[in-house]
Amino acid sequence: VPTAGLNLGFGPLQVLCRTGGSVAVGSCANLCSTSNSPYGIAVFTLAPTRNARTSGMVSKKEVAAAFLVAAEALGVEGEELGDLSACLASLSEDELAFFPKGDNKAIIKFARSACAKASAAGPGVGSAAGPDTSTTFIRDVLLAQPANVMNLFSVSQAGLDQPLGAKLPVSSWALQALGSGDQTDDHELSKYVELQPQLTVAKNAHRLSLITAAALTGLFGQQEGSEMMNTIRIGALVDTPLNFAAKSLGLPFRIDRNTADQPGATARLLRPDFLFWLRNILLFKGEEKAASAEHETAIAELKSKMATAWNPALLPGVSLPCMFAYAAAGSQVQFFAVTSRDGAVEATPVSDCLHIDTPLGRIKVVHHTFKVLQAVAAYAPSAPDLSIALGQVSKALTLNGSFLSSVTVFPDFIRKHVNLSQLQGGVLDHRALVAMYHAIGHVRCLNLVRLRGDGGVSLQDDGTTVLHLEPLGLPLGLTGRQAVEREGSLRDAVRGVLTALVVLHDAAPADCPLDCRQPPYRLPTWLGSHILDQATGRFTCESDLCLVAEALMSHLPFTLSDSGQRLREQLATRKLPNARVVLEHEWLLAASP
User: I need a surface site. Which of 126, 347, 447, 467 has the fewest CB within 10 A?
Assistant: First the structure.
């Protein structure tokens, strides 16, 4: 039965013929099984032999490279990327013989088919039938809290190489992919992995067993390549187990990675390659480099990029936990505890330098990732609530899905990327925006956000604008005390806001063309009924002045002077026509004590 030129799909070839005929099975194929049907049809299940496939075989390195290209071309990312990587890593050489090189869509379809078959076959191949118990096993056994859980406020010298609540389970059906036989009898590996565990909840942990098998086989852990290749290699060992286990524990978490958007080149230099937040607390990060020679560079960047779990100014008096991190360079991975005290940053090793071109090195990375999550889960009940996540990218899209803006929070500035052409009303263009911020920069006001000193604003090739803004002072209500403690400080703040409004109003139309009295145009921060024009319902220049009175000059911790009270009343009742006129008011011309 010839197999050349046939599209075999995924798995062995089945040949049907009448029982009266004959089938020659020579050196080109292995006869796996035969069966007869009551209709006089014989079914021969054939698998190509190694000799027959020598010319068309693909190595694991070729599979990894082709899958990388296909995933990037078709936008496969996130959790699915990790799942597909793990499934491909667990395939045997016989199964990889049918890998469709050169066709990106077929490659992704092949990987998805492999995952579907692994999920379907898991309960019945080499393990007791039953539902997947991975979540239960992770929650109740693997990440139960023994005495050796690391404390996020003191770095243990023992590091992460301590036992979990149990060994990582791997069933025989998953180990069929190893090719060279059972590797769990290795003395060192046996400290971390248990073959076909007898505990029922571990024996049926099929999803977790697949993750373990993927680490043992290491489809993406055999060779060094590009930084993107390293991301996929690490993803199968860190992202996939971390994501699955954190979901199993019900933690409020987010995982993110840097993406190669062209306008974000500066941001990528200042943001870790891998980030994990519990709520909005950055507790785990990673730096990844293509070559092993860059290991020290990756470690240095762990100390220079976002070295604290949050901006200390946001929670004064609250102790900062340490942050876990890994440096991955080529085939080397090492874990660290990053601490920052009085501006001095230290990265203390909490693991050996692991080599992910070996099964032991890959299994240790998975094990250590679970140990990190174990410590994070122990910290979760006492973790503070934060409204701002360091390193988080918040994106906004238009109604038709076009990019509108994104905001990224860095330790000492905020990066805003905005498509001004998509803003409703077209109030500002790039030139007017630059003029406004440059005008603000000449005003001494500690409560204004202004352009950062490195230039701060740039126009991208695609017409979008990138702003680097630095807040001078702290967000309202986050300091534990009143933002404005005396009248002189209030005068500076009002003067600065009005200066910005002059530039904004000069560039804006006379008033908003929309009736803003109804949602979604009316904002919940507009508390007074007098904010909008009573006749038209539009937001006007006087509306901005009303907000100055309401948001800045009300509910003060001191009694405002008579002159200040008169200004507040005039602003709130729309007695002053514009910000330029307001700046000439006697209260604002007085010296600030």
Answer: 126
